Task: structure prediction
Amino acid sequence: MPHPVYIGLGSNLQDPASQIEQSFQTLDQLSQTRLVKHSRLYSSKPLGPQDQPDFVNAVCLIETELDPQTLLAALQEIEHNQGRIKKRRWGERNIDLDILLYADQKLQTQTLTIPHPEIAQRDFVLLPLAEITPGLLIPELGPVEDLISQLETTFVIPLALERQS
Ligand code: ROI
Result:
């Protein structure tokens, strides 16, 4: 039985929008996996050092038969194949793929924590999540909209809108 899994995508180097689009495609081609839907692309102010470009963020829902560790390895391979550049901690990168939620599983290993430990603090994750699955329940934390309402001002804007302004 395939498991529903939410993936967060982020990029702020080397044509971020195409980096994200390319990862959507690759995820859909992954073995035992299909892309169910993805959010719009969002522009967001960097969390961390401010002397770096704005990010493009998105999330997608996949269905996969890969277990969490195998999926993590597959995501790392996608990052590697897209020529993952990561300049510094909390710094700029050309592609970042995070497992946000894996069905309703909770998991904590050396390399992987599910749900993603920062999910409740990251508007650039929560807003696209609420777009594709309104009312999504985050294990232990509640509906995604409640988490969004607890965050301060947001600098996360759908990319097409930002380009118009
Ligand atoms: N900031 C934003 N806005 N979006 C990200 O995806 C992102 N990813 C990161 C750090 C550098 C912490 N900041 C980010 O890894």
Observations:
- The pocket of 7,8-dihydro-7,7-dimethyl-6-hydroxypterin is lined by residues 10, 44-48, 55, 57, 90-91, 96, 124 (CB under 6 Å).
- The chain has a mean pLDDT of 94.
- The domain at 3-163 is CATH 3.30.70.560 (Alpha-Beta Plaits).
- The two ends are 45 Å apart (CA to CA).
